[in-house]
């Protein structure tokens, strides 16, 4: 491999003005594509500006990534930055998210934002928000609605591309070895599980990497470990694990070690997220490669919410840029890693 760290993907331009407004009050690093605009700003929100009330329904607290994403949102949508945030945790249940969105509609908030736990089934509640004239912003995960007037903008990573980046690296490293691979999928029906699976499968097509099993570990460390234990009981010839997030990969490490094998050597591991725990395991040689999924979506959400409330045009899709790390690049990046 010639480059230790590489990136692909595009970033829709973000408004420098809005990032400037937020910069003074938020110390975190915005998604890679917008960090420069954020870092340089000094302006503060003008006195007398109206406070924007925003209801945010979060997926849950299933992973290190999710914790970092929640922190980014709560640290950015502050009173200091001109927001009145109502935050709810749906505990990975769609019905809880629908209930939260209905309650934000009843409260008459200025903006509703949410990260949909699964892709399908949102049209009725989004139509209710539209009927109440409350704009909706999607963060992190998409919905599969055919009617894109039901939301103003969708801010998040390209999950298909993340899967492709992981699969391309696997082919580059392991094609020709006859590797047998198991896959730990994210939450069934969620955009990242569907898209990462698709992207990875497309990238390894035509190689001799064989996917011998694929099951959901629901993006959690505990379920990732349990599913990996089952795989290890069922197969004695696993060479490679593709886990749709770091937490499931970390659970797989525990299962592999408990079975008396060496993760990263006897069984290679590729994951997605690049949160600190995952990066540490990568630097320690227990994971072999990680594709990043940037969770710091708070600044972009704040900017889009401000524009929507001001009646300005916003981009329907804002793609966040992601990096990728091998073991050496992880060791270099770890000291400055924020999440
Ligand atoms: O939607 C983003 C995914 O959700 C992250 O990769 C995962 O860690 C989280 O649970």
Automatic annotation (TrEMBL):
Q: Which InterPro entries match?
A: Peripla_BP_I, SBP_2_dom
Keywords, in A-Z order: Signal
Task: Respond yes or no to whether keyword Signal is given for this record.
Answer: yes
Where is it localised?
Cell envelope
All copies of the Periplasmic binding protein domain together span: 54-313
**Extent of Low complexity compositional bias:** 26-38
- The positions making up the signal sequence are 1-23
Disordered: annotated span = 26-46
Q: What family does the database annotate?
A: Belongs to the bacterial solute-binding protein 2 family.
Q: What is this protein called?
A: Monosaccharide ABC transporter substrate-binding protein (CUT2 family)
Starting at the broadest rank, the lineage of the source organism is: Bacteria, Bacillati, Actinomycetota, Actinomycetes, Micrococcales
């Amino acid at each position: 491999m010639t480059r230790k760290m590489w990136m692909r993907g595009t970033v829709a331009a973000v408004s420098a003005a809005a990032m400037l407004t937020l910069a003074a009050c938020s110390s975190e690093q915005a998604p890679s594509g917008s960090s420069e605009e954020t870092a340089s700003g000094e302006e503060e929100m003008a006195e007398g500006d109206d406070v924007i009330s925003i209801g945010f329904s979060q997926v849950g607290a299933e992973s290190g990534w999710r914790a970092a994403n929640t922190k980014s949102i709560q640290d950015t949508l502050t009173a200091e930055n001109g927001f009145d945030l109502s935050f709810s945790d749906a505990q990975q249940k769609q019905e809880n998210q629908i209930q939260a969105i209905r309650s934000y509609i009843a409260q008459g908030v200025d903006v509703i934002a949410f990260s949909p736990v699964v892709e399908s089934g949102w049209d009725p509640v989004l139509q209710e928000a539209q009927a109440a004239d409350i704009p909706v912003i999607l963060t992190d995960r998409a919905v599969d609605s055919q009617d894109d007037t039901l939301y103003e903008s969708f801010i998040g990573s390209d999950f298909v591309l993340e899967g492709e980046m992981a699969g391309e690296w696997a082919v580059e490293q392991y094609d020709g070895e006859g590797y047998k691979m198991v896959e730990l999928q994210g939450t069934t029906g969620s955009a990242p599980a569907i898209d990462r699976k698709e992207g990875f499968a497309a990238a390894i097509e035509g190689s001799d990497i064989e996917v011998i099993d694929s099951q959901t570990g629901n993006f959690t460390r505990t379920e990732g470990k349990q599913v990996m234990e089952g795989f290890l009981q069922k197969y004695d010839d696993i060479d490679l694990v593709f886990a749709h997030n770091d937490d499931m990969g970390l659970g797989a490490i525990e299962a592999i070690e408990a079975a008396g094998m060496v993760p990263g050597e006897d069984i290679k591991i590729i994951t997605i997220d690049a949160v600190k725990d995952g990066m540490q395991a990568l630097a320690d040689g227990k994971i072999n490669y990680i594709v990043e999924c940037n969770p710091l979506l708070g600044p972009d959400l704040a900017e889009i919410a401000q524009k929507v409330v001001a009646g300005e045009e916003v981009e329907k899709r804002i793609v966040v840029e992601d990096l990728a790390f091998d073991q050496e690049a992880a060791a270099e990046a770890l000291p400055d890693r924020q999440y």
